[in-house]
Design goal:
The protein is 72% helix and 2% strand. By secondary structure, it is an all-alpha fold. The complex is composed of two ATP-binding proteins (UgpC), two transmembrane proteins (UgpA and UgpE) and a solute-binding protein (UgpB).
């Protein structure tokens, strides 16, 4: 087989320059500035800075508020990822077996994908409205009086429900595509060998969906950590008080509203290290159990 190549050895490097410039400008340079600022106590008006070493990091460790938000972020990310993947997989399996009205059924499940996170947060405020919200009235029948932005756990519950609702269509699209890419011959052979649909799914279908599931696992954790910012800000109406917030939102509060640039930079570095460790763990431990061929 003839291998494609470039006649000029400098041409591929030249083609890479725009992409490398964007990565350096929007990732490496801000990351370096955040790392540098995390060791300084900076004047909020930019008039000076004082080197404080690791004081910004030790201050985070000693902060009960930061540790509570850190645990909430871990819990929030885990619950959103688990239920988003589980519900989407269930809907994709059911949609894959629909014969009549399949396109309509799938479109109804996918349209939420086009909703922006702040809009999803606004919808959550409507359905959880304390006086006339449909979900508030539904849960009140079981004796649960939901009060968003007044009760810590009720607010966390609304955030989780809105985040799951927003992410399920994305996972549904990928899972459905993965199911439809499984060869028909494999399905028919599995049907002959095993009549139990539940057992056939876990022994044949689910292993074949593993690469898709691994990709979605990474995407969903990233979504829960970073992309729920707009939704959380809308639900809290930019006034979190003592309500639950994620670490990304805490960076925004301390950096842009509290003008604590050094502390906010230290939090950004902690987030970068957390994401790096999580990515290494996923690719070293989880991906080894997945077979792509």
């Amino acid at each position: 087989m003839k291998r494609a190549g470039f006649d000029n050895r400098w041409l591929p490097m030249l083609l890479l320059v725009p992409q490398l410039s964007i990565i350096c400008l929007f990732f490496y340079w801000p990351a370096w500035q955040a790392l540098r600022s995390s060791f300084y106590l900076e004047d909020p008006f930019g008039l000076g800075q004082t080197f404080v070493g690791l004081k910004n990091y030790t201050r985070l460790w000693d902060s009960a508020q930061y540790m509570r938000n850190a645990w909430f972020t871990v819990w929030f990310s885990g619950v959103v990822t688990l239920f988003s993947l589980g519900i989407a997989l269930l809907l994709a399996v059911k949609a894959d077996t629909v014969l009549r009205g399949a396109k309509t059924y799938r479109t109804l499940l996918m349209w939420v994908y086009a909703v922006a996170p702040p809009v999803a947060g606004f919808i959550a405020l409507i359905v959880f409205n304390q006086r006339w919200g449909p979900l508030t009235e539904f849960f009140s029948q079981f004796g649960w009086d939901i009060r968003i932005r007044l009760d810590y756990h009720d607010t966390a519950f609304a955030m989780i429900v809105a985040s799951i609702w927003k992410q399920v269509p994305v996972n549904f699209i990928f899972f459905l595509s993965g199911l439809q890419s499984i060869p028909r011959a494999v399905r028919e052979a599995a049907l002959i060998d095993n009549r139990s649909g539940f057992s056939r799914f876990w022994t044949v279908t689910f292993p074949l969906l593993a690469p898709t599931g691994f990709f979605l696992l990474v995407i969903n954790i990233t979504y829960a950590l970073f992309e729920t910012f707009g939704m959380i800000d809308t639900i809290l109406r930019n006034n979190p008080g003592d309500m639950p917030v994620t670490l990304v939102y805490q960076v925004y509060l301390d950096g842009f509203r509290g003008q604590d640039i050094g502390g906010s930079s230290a939090q950004s570095v902690v987030l970068m290290v957390l994401v790096l460790a999580l990515t290494i763990f996923q690719f070293r431990m989880v991906e080894r159990r997945i077979h792509y061929t």
